[in-house]
Each structure stands twice: as C-alpha cells, then as structure tokens.
Amino acid sequence: MSEIAKARVFSGIPNVLDAKAIELPFLGNGEILVKNSMCSICKSDLHTLSGTRPGPTPSILGHEIVGEIVALPANPVLDFWGNQLKTGDLITWTIMASCGECSFCKRGLPQKCVSIKKYGHEKMEGHFRLTGGFASHTHLYPGTFTYKLPGEIDKRLLAGLNCSWATVVAAIRNADEIKGKNVLITGAGMLGLLAVMICREKGAAKIVVCDKDEQRLDLTKDFGADLTLKDCFSNSNEKEGSGMLQQNALIDVFLEMTGSNEIVQKIFQIAGIGASIVLAGSVFPVEDVVINPEHIVRRLLQIKGVHNYTPNDLGDAIMILQKTYRKYPFEKLFDQKTYGLENIDEAVAHATLSSKHRVVIGL
C-alpha cells in the first residue's frame, strides 16, 4: 500500500509534536486499517506531553478514537458482537490488544495481558507505527476487540467510548448493585460526570458529587446529581448533606475518580458499614495512605481498584450511549471548536487549560 498517512509524533520533548508522513502498512491476519474520524484529548495525553507521565518514544499519542475501516485482511474479521466487518464501517475498539492466551487473559483481565499493546501508548517501530489517534490513520493490532457503531451519534461522543465511558462502566460494575443505593462520586471531570449519568440510569437513590470546580459541579446536575458539594468532607458540608457523609451513614457506594490521596484517605475513614469503595482515579505513582484493617473487617467494607476495562465493559458502554444520547445534554461536555492535525498544538494548549470541556480533533 503506497498511500501516506499524516501524523503528529511525540519524541519526548515536552509539549512538542512533530509533523511526520508515514507509509500505510500492508495488513496481516487480524489487522485492520482505520481512517480516523475523531480523536479527543485525554488528560493522560496531556500528562505524557508535559513530561509528568513517562512513555516510550517516538510515539503517536491519542487513544480516544473513532474511525472508518479503509482496509481489511483477506480473512473475514468479526467485531465483538459477531458482525462481519467491511470497509466503510464506523468502529471503535478496545484501548488494548491482548493475546487471549496468558493467565491474565484467561482470568478475564485482558487489560493486564503480559503482551499487551495499548493504543496511544506504544513506541513507533517495525510493522506497527500508526497506533495512536494524533494521526490520519490507525493500524489495529490482532487481538483488538472492535465494535461497529451507529452513524447517527455525534462522533465526539463516540470517540470517548473506549476510554472514559468504558472505564466508568467497569467502575460501576465493580461496585455491584447500584439500584436503590446512595452514591458519592468524588471528582466531576469526564469520569465523574459519566458516573453520575450511568448511576442515575441504573436507579441510584441519591447521587452526591464532590469537586472543587463549581462549573463542573453545576454541569453534573444536568446529568442526574442530587447534591453537589465543593468540599464534601468539611463539617459544614457533612451537615448540608443531611448526615450522608458521616461515618456509619447511608453512603452505600463511593466512586473515587480524582486520584487524590487526601480524598482516598478520607473515604477510608468515613465509609460506613457495608459500603463499597471503588478507586478508579489513582493511576499515577502516589504516597501510601493509611487504612485500619479492623475498620475493613468490622465495617464489612469492600474495596476494589479499577484500571481500564474488559471488552464486555466497552460493549455495555456502547449500549448505554445508544439509549441515552438524546436524553442528556452531552454537547455541553465538549469545546465548541473542533481542531485539526494542522493546529493540534493549539488544541493541546486549550485542553491543558480547560477543566470543563473535552477538546476534540477532527481528522
């Protein structure tokens, strides 16, 4: 294949993305070539670009991608639901490719596969060079779960399915039953806001959201939050929450999306009897926090960590979006401007400053 892809490549110099032309690959069995339609900039992309998160270089960042198939191998390729894929299909795919044979894959944890490949996180080398969304095309590895998508949904929403949406679905799955439960969500960024909406759809009794950003808190009300608190662990806000945040009160589920050690520590302290605690935000190296084992035992606490998700979670996320995309004001989640590869530097700068909106790149 002699055509050329356009890419913006990160070589390790903070906040620098170099324009590169890359030859499109010939496909092997199980591989797919996608023409990217939309890629949103995730906070993890910004951490890598700024140098606060180490990663291999050179690489093409960006993993929240949706696009159309432009080339398939000779052998038929089926998506997650068993649909035979064809050129022109609009698809998303898991953030990772997995082998399906290692002990983690066989235990239902493909996101921890011993030979995992993650889109937007891999070094450009050998046969696979186009593996991120900051490019015109993505070359999918064998072992990637793909999902054919409906064309009527805003592509800005579709792009985030394989990151924030699926991660939140995994977090809520690990909290067990949500219906009729009181839920506290710490963090009102993209993860927290989607958690509000999905908990509302699953029949939560009360949803409390804590965040320092008042604009983000206001937005959660449009997605189903019952109570928003700027400092949910202060004495005054515990009182405002009608005692819901006090030890042994009726917070049944804690969904922690910030990664703040201070917040994690406080949750461990106040969680009441039978509470379920799901940690999804602590994805960077942090100091240890203190937890009393007796409290875990006597309070019957359940504590789970969630990192990425399984293919089933992404499938469930797609189903939820199909049911809700007309119900909630999702357009409020995105910056009004759509950027291109040619002005991706401007997009990154804006995303770095934006606490409320997701910045997207049209390709």
Q: What would the keywords be for this entry?
A:
Rossmann fold, single chain, 11 helices, globular, alpha/beta, 8-stranded mixed sheet, 24% strand, 363 residues, Quinone Oxidoreductase, Chain A, domain 1, 6-stranded parallel sheet
Q: How would you name the CATH homologous superfamily of the largest domain?
A: Medium-chain alcohol dehydrogenases, catalytic domain
Supply the helix-strand structural class: alpha/beta
Give the helix level as a range of percent. 25-40%
CATH topology of the largest domain: Quinone Oxidoreductase, Chain A, domain 1
CATH architecture of the largest domain: Alpha-Beta Complex
Specify the biggest β-sheet. Answer: 8 strands, mixed
pLDDT average, as an integer?
Answer: 92
Q: Strand-and-helix sequence, N→C?
A: EEEHEEHEEEHHEHEHEHEHEHEHEHE
Q: What's the Cα radius of gyration? A: 21 Å
The helix tally amounts to: 11
Task: Report the top-level CATH class of the largest domain.
Answer: Alpha Beta
Number of strands: 16
Distance between the termini: 20 Å
* Total tally of structural domains: 2
Strand content: 15-25%
The global form is globular
Multimeric state: single chain
Parts with pLDDT < 50 across at least 5 consecutive residues: 238-242
InterPro entries: ADH-like_C (IPR013149), ADH-like_N (IPR013154), ADH_phosphonate_catab-assoc (IPR017743), GroES-like_sf (IPR011032), NAD(P)-bd_dom_sf (IPR036291)
GO molecular function, one term: alcohol dehydrogenase (NAD+) activity
EC number: 1.1.1.1
Protein name: alcohol dehydrogenase
